[in-house]
């Protein structure tokens, strides 16, 4: 039988209702405070360091996000890399199984609302809350930087920081889709939360240590490269491909390229820049930085779509009972 009407009928209603529930809940308030407090300490230290050590730098605003040119543990970017997944998981781990446990899912499905609209409304509502939190943190960082440093950002600095904000939102969307998938697969919210947190710990902490060994098993390095003390190019390709399975690594690569335009981009890219007559170590134009990170951004968006489709397929196969 063919369905009548648009499959997105009721999407706006579900989204507005979920937004109202999110903004009225103590959970969202605590998650927002967690993000601000976690980023406040490295931000204060970064501002103090920049004021003492930097005389003239065309990218002062970008240094507030990543002061040393690396995504280290004392930067705002590193804090967001760990906090954003927690907030996204906190917004989505009970989105569907919570309706099951409250016995409200059958009542919702009795209304002229398709499952498509229900899933999409909950996802877009959670993504909106996450984007609002990230936007507030972004404005806080920029405002404190201008107030305490006394130097307004340039147009390219502000544009790069906005691109980084988009990357952070896409990064959070991937974890939100994963949390919603486990919310559909498991009826217990605790089980869904633990599974999502377990995947987060695996991808953020363990996978960077496991992937080099897996790459060596797939493509054993040549002995000649080992004697020279350098990485076999084929092994390096596999290692990079395996590392990019992790959303955290995609986010880290994109943030490092966008926020540190003067950083070395690797021997091969540095040689290409030298052949074109460019001075290695000078600032990379924004357009070329975007050309380098479009793979990471597309990877985050594609991962979000794949996870959402898996959530949709699993939800369509479930039976909704009163």
Describe this structure in words.
- The protein has about 325 residues and is an all-alpha fold.
- It has a domain at about 10-210 and about 300-315.
- The chain contains 14 helices and no strands.
- The chain has helices at about 10-25, 25-55, 60-65, 75-90, 95-100, 105-110, 115-150, 155-185, 190-220, 225-230, 235-245, 245-260, 265-275, 285-315.
- Helices cover about 75% and strands about 0% of the residues.
Summarize this entry quickly:
75% of the residues lie in helices and 0% in strands. It has 322 residues and is mainly alpha-helical.
Secondary-structure blueprint:
Elements: H1 11-24, H2 26-53, H3 60-65, H4 76-92, H5 97-101, H6 105-110, H7 115-149, H8 155-185, H9 189-218, H10 223-228, H11 233-243, H12 247-259, H13 267-275, H14 286-316
Low-pLDDT segments, ≥5 res: 264-268, 275-280
Radius of gyration: 22 Å
Number of strands: 0
The overall average pLDDT, rounded, is 81
Q: What would the principal axes of the Cα set say about the shape?
A: globular
Strand-residue proportion? under 5%
SSE order, one letter for each helix or strand: HHHHHHHHHHHHHH
